[in-house]
Structures are given as structure tokens and as C-alpha cells.
């Protein structure tokens, strides 16, 4: 009799409960039962209300600030390890604290490396994530990392728009590699914005490298936080003669007055994924779900089949 591989168990951290439910449904499974007990001072304790002994489990949770989200993932991993789960995969659609991937001045931490070490210490035997802020973060882990690309969702959407004179743009020099990859897939031109910051999240100056006159421009980035860079870039490109400006960003942090900036800018549309729960609705923000992508990869990981087709960039 052929051995049947037991189905994995899928659990959700509270901050990603909605996305986890979509992933589980796409996978064809039910979310596992986990409860959170909370103390009056804010301390909390997760508890798996079903056996995970010897099982492969997937714990789904983005680690966008606040730090409670990261702590929740760590406690879930530790609980699974102490409950004798065999394989423990941290599914992190958004890997938080990734902007601190190097020392850019003296006496600062490398938070992304610290987070990687904490996840492994807590019990993660594999990481599945999407569009890391810096590719080299994969090297901070000693465990396997499946680094997925949201381009598998964005490229079909962009092609469906049938835009003439399409030009891909990077809002900064650091994103030029990503912009060139999209331009190659779409056979389009590329332009790059050069920006200078006075302090974090504050742009003091921006210049455009390339021509956008009479072009339909699509800005490409991995995340949008305050939306200052994207909206300033969109306004600059319209000043330079662009016909329209859209933006695609994988992770929609959209903190502070980001929604107001987007709605008051010349951006025609901001296309994002649901890796982070939306704070509110906006007519200018279109959300594409990454649930099918993660469910497919989780299925392939569980059955030890290739995920190479998920790497379009």
C-alpha cells in the first residue's frame, strides 16, 4: 500500500487572520484551532487547541509593526516546537524590520539579521516570504527561505491594462533592478528617480533620469509606507509630460496620512497585495490577493515539488 503523506496543519497569527483564511481555503484546508489568552497588562499567550505532534505546520503572519506582530509569530513558533511539530514553516507575506538590513551609520542595529536569528531560535525550520526589501536578507538565515515575487500577480494585471507607450519607473536608485526586471518582462522603457533624504521618510530633493513625455508610467516598488516617495514621483512625472502614472507596491504599510497623500496626488491607481491588512478603503487603491500564490507554494513545499515556476523575476 502506498504511503499517504498526511496533510499539513495551517494556523494564523491574529494580524493575518483574514489572509490566512483565504490561503487555507485556496489550499483546500481548514484553519487550525489556536486561541490567545491575554493579561490585563498586554501580555498574551497562544495555545494550539489540537495536537501538532509529528505534523508539518504552517504558521501565517506578517510582522509589520507594531512589534506585537513579531512577538506573536515567535510565541507561535515556540509553542509548536515545544508541542513536537516535525516541520514548522513561518509563512510571512511581509517580513518586517527588513529596512534595517545593514549598518548605514555607526552604532545602529542590523534588525533584519536579528529577526532572522530570533525566528530560527523560536523553532522555524523554513521561511516562506514575498518581496523582501533586500534580497540578501535570505543569507541571514541558516534555514531554507522561499522568497516569492509578487510579479506573478502584478505582471498579468499590467498586461490586462493594454497600455500604449508603457514605461516602468523606479522611485529610487535602490529599486532599479526590480524596475529593469519588470521592463524586460513587459518589453518597455525604464526611467529612474534620484532622491535625497534629509531624515527617514522625508525627501528633500528628487530628480528624474529618463524621458516620460507622452508615456503611461508604472512606478514599481516593494513597499509603500508614508507614500511620500510615490506621490512626489508621480507629480514629478506628470510635470514632465507623462500621460498617466500608476504604482505597484507589494506591501501597503500606508502609515500616517498616506491615504490622503495618495488620494490628493496625480497617481491614477496604486496596486498592492493583501500581505498587510488594509487600514481603510480608497478608490485609488486596488488590492490583489496573494492567497493563491502562498497556498500553491505551501502545497508544493509539503509535497516536495519544485516552486521554480513562481520565480518570474
Automatic annotation (TrEMBL):
This enzyme's EC code(s): 2.7.6.1
Enzyme class: transferase
Record has Transmembrane helix as a keyword: no
Xref: PROSITE patterns: PRPP_SYNTHASE
SUPFAM superfamilies: PRTase-like (SSF53271)
InterPro entries in the cross-refs: PRib_PP_synth_CS, Pribosyltran_N, PRTase-like, PRTase_dom, Rib-P_diPkinase
Molecular function per GO: ATP binding; kinase activity; magnesium ion binding; ribose phosphate diphosphokinase activity
Domain Ribose-phosphate pyrophosphokinase N-terminal: 9-123
Catalysis performed (reactions): D-ribose 5-phosphate + ATP = 5-phospho-alpha-D-ribose 1-diphosphate + AMP + H(+)
Cross-referenced SMART domains: Pribosyltran_N (SM01400)
Superkingdom as given in the UniProt entry: Bacteria
Residues spanning the signal sequence: none
One GO CC term on file: cytoplasm
GO biological process: 5-phosphoribose 1-diphosphate biosynthetic process; purine nucleotide biosynthetic process; ribonucleoside monophosphate biosynthetic process
Keyword terms of this UniProt record: ATP-binding, Cytoplasm, Kinase, Magnesium, Metal-binding, Nucleotide biosynthesis, Nucleotide-binding, Transferase
NCBIfam families xref list: PRK01259.1, ribP_PPkin
UniProt name for this protein: ribose-phosphate diphosphokinase
